Amino acid sequence: MNNHQGYVNKDYLENASLVFKEIKKSSYEKMSIASGDRVLDVGCGPGIDVAGLAKQVSQNGLAVGIDHDSEMIAEAKTLAGSLGVSENVEFHVHDVAALPFDNNYFNSCRSERVFMHLTDPLTTLKEMYRVTKPKGHIVVTDSDWSSLSIDGHTVDTEMKLFQFHRDEVMASGYTGRSLFRLFREAGISDIQINIFPLFTTNLGAFSNLVRLQVIEERASAANAISKDELASWREQLQQAADDDCFFCSMNIISVSGIKPG
Ligand SMILES: C[S@@+](CC[C@H](N)C(=O)[O-])C[C@H]1O[C@@H](n2cnc3c(N)ncnc32)[C@H](O)[C@@H]1O
Q: 61 CB less than 6 Å from ligand 1?
């Protein structure tokens, strides 16, 4: 089992994929996939998108997934088998700081909610650029954690908790809003930006999606918030849920572009 910061498991990602369904669909469209294409999903997790991409490239194409977590890749192979797309998928256990593919190998590449876990996201974006063919599309989607907003009275605690999350829990907690700059720095052209607002009024769903307990416990252990602050924060969230008035929103940012030809 991997123990790196930000680790999530297959069940978490399957649940999240329902929330992110439209965002995923939009990212496939931005890749402009044609039958027979070779496409890459960087940080593929349990292969939900590789299976989706496999259907789009059809039987004469190839959808490739790469992730450094061997358990995720095992799940991805099982999923591809159960969906009958094993013949046109391929998986690699590898760090995405260096992609084990030749230059100009893929027609298009994508990555979703991975850059926030990378210590050097620009290196990975440049690798995606390198392995994409000229005129090929590159799409990266990430959460804009700075846009997370929760209704309530303990605003100071909210600010401290999620600043701790961006600075200490995530390897790169500001990548969502940095994607445009990273695309510029990588030399990608025809950049387009799409922002997807998410909201929930369900405290349980929110807690699961952001892994709230992990953030709270780590912030408390690091003395970023006091025990009293944590207790009244939790009490307030529970009160809001009991009163059926919990509300939280956040933006997901997706940036796409083309490798110049
Ligand atoms: C939040 S999950 C997203 C998975 C998938 N993209 C999705 O949308 O379902 C992040 C994934 O990135 C992978 N990951 C994080 N850092 C990595 C690295 N340096 N090299 C390869 N994979 C990495 C994790 O193992 C995990 O599967």
A: no
